[in-house]
Design a protein that fits this description.
By secondary structure, this protein is mostly helical. The chain has one domain: Orthogonal Bundle (434 Repressor (Amino-terminal Domain)). The protein contains 4 helices and no strands. The chain has helices at 12-25, 30-37, 41-48, 56-66. The protein is globular and about 35 Å long. The relative contact order is 0.16.
């Protein structure tokens, strides 16, 4: 699916950028991040590629691994 040229930013965009930055800095694959966050790797791959969204619970698990929290328990 092609992105529109001037697609509006979403709340997911900063998390996608942070995931890319974190995996690059830590020389970690998306597969390894998914494993560490207990997230299905295909869900994470499609999220980072902006092909799908994720739940807040999934985003929170990812944030816990890459540093930070998104939601209260």
């Amino acid at each position: 699916m092609a992105k529109r040229k001037n697609a509006p930013r979403t709340l997911s965009d900063p998390l996608r950028a942070r995931i890319r930055q974190w995996t690059e800095e830590h020389q970690c694959s998306l597969h390894e991040l998914a494993r560490d966050a207990d997230v299905d790797r295909s869900v994470l791959s499609r999220f980072v590629a902006a092909e799908r969204n994720i739940t807040l619970a999934t985003a929170d698990r990812l944030a816990a691994v890459i540093g930070g929290r998104l939601a209260d328990d």
